Amino acid sequence: MATKVQSLARPVSEQRAILGPTGNRVRASEDPKRKTEVSKKPKKPAPKIPEPVIRNNASVDSSCSSESSTSSATSAKRMENSRRSVTAKRNGVKNMKVVPHASAEIPEASPMNSGPIKRCDWITPTSDPLYISFHDEEWGVPVYDDRKLFELLVFSQALAELSWPAILSKRDIFRHLFDNFDMSSVSLFTEKKLLSLKVNGSLLLSEPKLRAIVENAKQMLKVQQEFGSFSNYCWNFVNHAPVRNGFRYARQVPVKTPKAELISKDLMQKGFRCVGPTVVYSFMQVSGIVNDHLLTCFRYQQCNADAKKDLKPKIEEMKN
Description:
Largest sheet: 2 strands, antiparallel
Number of strands: 8
Distance between the termini: 112 Å
Strand content: 5-15%
Order of helices and strands: HEEHHEEHHHHHHEEHHEHHEH
Radius of gyration: 42 Å
Helix content: 40-55%
């Protein structure tokens, strides 16, 4: 009965046996308590054990204990790693490759990086190939050549009657009928010449638009004399640096802005025709005076990079 009472009266803080992969083992820290219980029995004194044997047993006990703790720690690590990998998969986190003997982690290559090119929302898989190429190579690229700017101004005016795909499909015809957009030549067009600008028996554009193109060619020659170039005149409005709007959605892109209204008003005062704010803003977009590629479009950053390359030599050229 005394032994049972003593066993029930054990301290609550005593640690339980550890369950490891090699079975149930008792920690070495419990051995002294057992020895005290045995020593309390008065009948038979415990035989003396030689000191070398005690040392050997202690070393064996400690090695067994260390093996147990090592194996249990290893199994705990494995379980923790498996839990993390399962949690990462559920949460959609990418797997990481841990570099041995280093603290840096390198993410595994993801197949998502090799997906299709992201363009502005108004370019769809069913868009005209000419329109896609125009978006990828020209639209939003800064233009400084006067003849090219005259061509883009004409196209921006034509948008009131034609769509971009229709204009691009007739681009060669435009260039042929308008003498490759030579302003000096177009400024000399007569009424008879205007009425001969036909495609399949129909005028390329309405008569008011054709007359406006001829009048604008005359006014561009005057601007060249006053500002050195039509390019210099246009880029002065934005301090010779493209405006970067950085819109995320197509619905955010405006059809006109206060800056476009300012340029439109100044152009009309100089005698230009058919250059309302909407036409002017389309001209600003296509000539790269404003970068309206969406932030998600691959061309947004490319046009910004092109602008930085062109900006420095242009500024030095104007200073000289």
